[in-house]
Design brief:
With 327 residues, the chain is an alpha/beta fold. The chain has two domains: 272 residues, 3-Layer(aba) Sandwich (Rossmann fold); 36 residues, no CATH class. It contains 15 helices and five strands. The chain has a five-stranded parallel sheet, with helices on both faces. Bound molecules: adenosine-5'-triphosphate and magnesium ion.
Length: 327
């Protein structure tokens, strides 16, 4: 049954996966309006609910096992739905086990370091899920589309040649390989929005007063560079989808579907990790049995010695009487 579910999730996300080594041309290869044949949003919402429950269970196990960490990298164009995806997909998990880091234009201190430094500072620990809202991939996206960002990084001449982007792809792949080898799995999601859907979402941000704050004139300037971004995304997906950290291109024109996909890819990774609750040694269990006897001796007169055990055995047997302290 569990294997069956794992297989269905793997099947569902397969069309979104960028096979390592594949040369991607976004406009031809991935349809932002794809819905995997799910016709009604209601069905998608139901699927997401199941996915969120599954994630909550796996996150508890991930935290308890405390061996693996998971890093989710979310990339999108403006209005691609990163915030809503994080909010919905993570709605069931314990906030203590999740950390969201949003990356903006780098600060002076960040520019004083190598370009991966600020991302390394925000990596999740073991047992945690870290979400990068924008990520180290901005270093081959916005920095590539606007080369003045590279000037601000004050690289030595030797590091600025025409091969800088290929070098960054390799460095990013190596860094992710290192993290994966050391127990940190990386989930990479690109929310793929169509130009028309972005136009509609921008207009909504202008039309609805409560959404005005979300709109920035800079977003329209970036939209004017649409083709440059599509090229940068295509090259990034071609060069950095690896066996250890593949990219998933999530169709983002339907928000509900993008959320189902994001939950499914994350669930797939957690299922692969298959974290287990730690089992205690026989000696520890004997110690626990001794503590239980002591706690049972403290039960007030007439009370069940162990109310939890009583409720469990009642559930199993239907009407078994709980053991009580004599009145
Ligand atoms: P929102 O949904 O709130 O708009 P956002 O992620 O777009 O979220 P903003 O504060 O609007 O956040 O924008 C952050 C900006 O920082 C983006 O335009 C992004 O391209 C830019 N940015 C991120 N990383 C870098 C980087 N390494 N160099 C230069 N600019 C960067
Ligand atoms: Mg923005």
């Amino acid at each position: 049954m569990a294997d069956d579910r794992a297989e269905r999730i793997a099947e569902f996300i397969r069309p979104l996966r960028v096979e390592p080594g594949r040369k991607v041309h976004l406009a031809d290869d991935f349809d932002p309006g794809y819905k995997a044949g799910i016709r009604k949003k209601k069905e998608g919402v139901e699927l997401l609910r199941t996915g969120v429950e599954l994630l909550a269970d796996y996150q508890r196990r991930l935290a308890a096992q405390d061996t693996y960490g998971v890093l989710v990298c979310l990339q999108a164009l403006d209005a691609g739905g990163k915030d809503g995806t994080i909010r919905h997909v993570m709605s069931g998990v314990n906030p203590q086990g999740v950390q969201v880091s949003s990356f903006k234009v780098p600060s002076t201190e960040e520019l004083d370091h190598d370009y991966l430094w600020r991302y390394a500072c925000r990596l999740p620990g073991r047992g945690e899920i870290g979400i990068f809202n924008r990520s180290h991939y901005e270093e081959v996206l916005v920095v590539r589309v606007h080369p003045e960002n590279l000037d601000r990084q004050r690289l030595p001449d030797s590091a600025r040649g025409p091969d800088v982007w290929d070098r960054r792809y390799r460095e990013i792949n190596d860094w992710e390989h290192y993290l994966t080898d050391n127990g940190f799995r990386i989930v990479k999601l690109f929310l793929n929005l169509s130009k028309e859907e972005q136009r509609i979402r921008f207009l909504k941000r202008i039309d609805v007063p409560e959404r005005n704050w979300k709109f920035s004139p800079a977003d329209v300037r970036e939209r004017a560079r649409w083709d440059d971004y599509q090229r940068a995304f295509s090259q990034m997906l071609s060069a950095t989808s690896t066996k250890w950290a593949p990219w998933y291109v999530v169709p983002a024109d339907h928000k509900w579907f993008a959320r189902v996909c994001a939950a499914a890819v994350l669930a797939h990774t957690l299922i692969e990790i298959n974290p287990q609750y730690p089992r205690v040694s026989d000696e520890t269990r004997r110690g626990l049995a001794e503590v239980r006897r002591e706690l049972e001796r403290e039960a007030p007169k007439g009370a069940a010695l162990d109310p939890y055990a009583a409720s469990v055995s009642k559930g199993e047997s239907g009407n078994r009487k709980p053991r009580r302290r004599a009145p």
